[in-house]
Amino acid sequence: MAVADAAVRETPTGPGHERTGGISSSLLGMVLFIASEVMFFGGLFGAYFTLRTAAPEWPPPGTPELNKLYALGLTAVLVSSSVTMQLGVFAIRRNDQKWLVRWLAITLVLGALFLMGQANEYHILFTEGTTLRSGVFGSTFFTLTGFHGAHVFGGAAFILIVLLRARSGQFTARYHDTVEMASYYWHFVDVVWLGLVTTIYLLSQ
Predict the structure, then answer these.
(1) Which of 177, 146, 140 is nearest to 162 (CA)?
(2) b/e map of 50-77 (b: 16 or more CB within 10 Å)?
(3) Which of 14, 13, 32 shows the shortest CA–CA distance to 184?
(4) Contacts of 134 by beta carbon, 8 Å cutoff, 6+ apart
């Protein structure tokens, strides 16, 4: 009991867990959550490859050619946001709260640009007649990229909350597990997107 009391101390943001080595319970929770998300996207990729293997021709005839350069541009934006997110983590690890806020803000802007770019691509495909119900390619494309986009939106909302807390000075070099959790999640959605680009854009057409 005394050990537990010593491990949990009051911080400017509320109870904080003293690191004595290893991974904190909050970071472990995020790792387990990401593991469940890996299985979720693994199922989506599995369904995609099952449909692709069963199709007599892939992509199906009449499928509009996806803009690979556009997708690579979106990739550059998302990868850049992962870099800025990590720079924010490095900043708070050295107790630099000012640069934590700056890197989080830049990450949020890049995430928003990615989502706007994806929405623009959807608009182009819709005008060309490719929708969720236009065929197996449209169904798989919008399902995979749509779920990923939803995860990016969720990650951006998470970063916004972290940013608002960072502006209030709620994180220090010792207590910043929430920043680390946001970075874990953001890197995860980045890795998933790299898999999507490779599978759908580069190896599909």
Answers:
(1) 177
(2) eebeeeeeebeeebeebeeeebeebbeb
(3) 32
(4) none
| 32 CB-near residues (< 8 Å, 6+ apart) | none
Burial 155-168 (b: 16+ CB within 10 A, else e): bbeebbebbebbee
The rounded distance, in Å, linking the Cα atoms of 56 and 189 is 32
Indicate the length of the chain as a whole number: 205
202: DSSP letter:
I
Cα–Cα distance, 25 to 31 (Å, whole number): 10
One pLDDT digit (tens) per residue for the chain, 205 residues: 333 343 334 345 444 444 556 788 999 999 999 999 999 999 999 999 999 888 888 888 878 889 999 999 999 999 999 999 999 999 999 999 999 999 999 999 999 999 999 999 999 999 988 888 888 889 999 999 999 999 999 999 999 999 999 999 999 999 999 999 999 999 999 999 999 999 999 887 6
What are the tokens at 113?
């640009």
Residue 81 and residue 77: Cα distance in Å, rounded? 6
DSSP state of 23: -
**In 10 A of CB 153, how many CB atoms?**
16
Strand, coil or helix: 16:
strand
Q: What's the pTM value of the predicted model, to 2 decimals?
A: 0.86
140's tokens: 């798989």
